[in-house]
Amino acid sequence: xxxxxxxxxxxxxxxxxxxxxxxxxxxxxxxxxxxxxxxxxxxxxxxxxxxxxxxxxxxxxxxxxxxxxxxxxxxxxxxxxxxxxxxxxxxxxxxxxxxxxxxxxxxxxxxxxxxxxxxxxxxxxxxxxxxxxxxxxxxxxxxxxxxxxxxxxxxxxxxxxxxxxxxxxxxxxxxxxxxxxxxxxxxxxxxxxxxxxxxxxxxxxxxxxxxxxxxxxxxxxxxxxxxxxxxxxxxxxxxxxxxxxxxxxxxxxxxxxxxxxxxxxxxxxxxxxxxxxxxxxxxxxxxxxxxxxxxxxxxxxxxxxxxxxxxxxxxxxxxxxxxxxxxxxxxxxxxxxxxxxxxxxxxxxxxxxxxxxxxxxxxxxxxxxxxxxxxxxxxxxxxxxxxxxxxxxxxxxxxxxxxxxxxxxxxxxxxxxxxxxxxxxxxxxx
Length: 430
What we know:
Strand order of the largest sheet: 1-2
Radius of gyration: 24 Å
Number of strands: 2
Oligomer: single chain
Largest sheet: 2 strands, antiparallel
């Protein structure tokens, strides 16, 4: 594993130095990013189920039933607190902001303490395994770093293949997550630092290999959950023209706080809890609470995915569906597009459960040429304009083809209208 991660490390650095984001992600559309986001949500829910399965195998029936209550309770309380911004006029706005931004942490603390009170304290439970001393957790290791230089040269070169697959996964995972967290809905103004992110990811991946620990790609600061917690309302001045006169209009807009503190505090908290005394505190955490956290993260990711709202359209009677633009020929193409996304996601997820799991990043990347070369022959272009767009730039692949053909479409550069439609639906339901 050490050499696989070391190779992945220098490959990340190479991608960053070559500014790979500009010449790779420019061809990625929201078709692929939505599938990847849905896949992550499913994996979160699956991890939660796995934790509860372990609880079922290791606990008494009564304790297992409480583990289910603890997992679902952790998720529901976190979801409830995450809506605190909408509780106006209840509480001061800073109290509401604190409840919303630390919803998951508050819920976790509540359900760590609850099973230690009253009759629940007599139930058996499984908790997180933590180290009680500053030494390698593996009994055969006496030092923290792996003696990777003892591996035969042939195996060192063979590890390049595994390193390449890890690089594909981490690069695409990180890039897509960063894109999802900086979509127009979040109103970001500062440019993205994709290359610097990949440099840091490459260094930490190589260090994980040298230390002999599983690689962590650090997606928490780039998760939609993080962006949602930083959303706030602010007044914005806009110039409008009324009867030929320009007037200043004040509008309330929602956008994220663009700062460095939250990501820094995430990293600092991880370093602090590596220390032995606080690792002991982590050891109080029931694994059922971890399952609840996984479900909450899956729900938060799923709730902002346009696939979810298009899936709701599949279940909606035709008479109740929103009106489509005139140039889109009915909902059949939209429904088929959504169904294909769901089927593709399920197929990739099934692959992750097999021995071919390491190859699943390749399947995700293959979706990019499939979208650009095949799907425009199976769907009407106006339907694809409606549901899809470039992930990192304005417009759609169909707009670019119109321009190459000499025809300029009046909707060039506007992006996917379906995305606006689903987000408006989401905000209305919220």
